[in-house]
Design a protein that fits this description.
The chain is mostly helical. The protein is 64% helix and 9% strand.
């Protein structure tokens, strides 16, 4: 679980997203793959990675001359508490308000809408199964 002093900054979240997607990476590899596409100095991202290591968000190993970083937690373990806090603190605990906001404020493809429907249907099925077992 991520505690307040371990909560990743926006830049740290971007680096983590690359690590979750691509796997263990060097700072140079991270620099080339950052999702926002901004130009950054190598030393800037190196400092970010060193801070993330101090926070316990990543671990580092040496491969040849390079240092390779890997996340210490998976995406769900890191983002779960952050999303729960956002849900509780910003949306009053209402999942439907979050979904309405996301769908209204972002471009959602037909493919993504289909995936959202699939997830909702699966959740309904599992909830109905749990209710039947209790009865």
């Amino acid at each position: 679980m991520t505690t307040n002093n371990q909560t990743p900054s926006n830049l740290e979240l971007q680096a983590l997203s690359v690590l979750w997607e691509r796997g263990p990476s060097t700072v140079r590899e991270l620099l080339a793959a950052m999702p926002d596409g901004k130009e950054r100095a190598y030393t800037t991202l190196l400092s970010v990675m060193q801070n993330m290591e101090k926070k316990g968000l990543v671990e580092r190993s040496k491969q040849g001359a390079a240092h390779v970083y890997r996340p210490k937690q998976n995406q769900r373990q890191t983002l779960g508490p952050m999303l729960q806090g956002l849900l509780r603190n910003v949306f009053g605990g209402s999942v439907s308000n979050v979904m309405q906001h996301l769908i209204a404020e972002t471009d959602v493809s037909e493919e993504e809408l289909s995936e959202i429907r699939r997830i909702i249907d699966a959740k309904k099925s599992s909830s109905n199964g749990a209710r039947r077992k209790k009865s």
